[in-house]
Known about the structure:
Blueprint: E1 4-8, H1 15-26, E2 29-32, H2 33-46, H3 54-61, E3 66-71, E4 74-79, E5 82-83, H4 91-100, H5 104-120, E6 123-127, H6 130-134, E7 140-145, H7 148-161, H8 168-184, E8 197-200, H9 206-216
Parallel strand pairs: 1-6, 1-7, 2-6, 7-8
Antiparallel strand pairs: 3-4, 4-5
The structure holds 2'-deoxycytidine-5'-monophosphate (DC).
Amino acid sequence: MSYNIAIDGPAGAGKSTIAKLVAKRMNFIYVDTGAMYRAMALYLLREGVNKEDTGKIEEVCEKADISISYKEGEQIVLLNGENVNGLIRTEEVGNMASVSSPNPKVREKLVQLQKELAKKTDVVMDGRDIGTCVLPDANVKVYLTASVEVRAARRFKELTAKGETCDLNQIERDIMERDERDMTREISPLKQAEDAVRIDSSELTIEEVAEAIIALCK
Ligand code: DC
């Protein structure tokens, strides 16, 4: 049986940084499910699909073949065979992912892939619905959160470090909007699983959060 750690939480809570570190320490594979939804969103944007057009999203998503592979421990997301890692971290793609990810057809496809991965491999998987829907039997479940201000400041730092011009207030508004969408959607809303441990990372270092999660595995 594989060992599964599920980490859920809102955008910018530090899920990917923490999950990556925990996976490295535990010698597990890190599965970034948000990247899969982002790859799907990129495909929809490339195909010129309107955010509001649910029917079109359903039709077009069937044509996207999304898979993941690993290179030197790093997850590579393949969209119809193309490595799209460098293209999915923009605000445009993130916003499209937030709008298109509630679609049942999109979820069905990607959740199946995530379940298969976790069945055969020890994983640290992060997302929004991992503890509640994708891996309800995960060995350890964590709900990682942080205040909106802290999350916006982290995102701002990340984007400016990449040379992107951005506005802190706008990022804060986007985060609040995204939280609202992710938490109130009908299908697989972001919510803490009953058996998940809640960790607020606002005042904690990366090291402290990672250690807290590793301690839960013992
Ligand atoms: O974590 P992220 O910002 O890369 O995720 C992008 C979007 O994908 C986010 O708005 C919510 C969605 N998502 C989801 O619905 N389910 C997941 N397991 C992971 C992400």
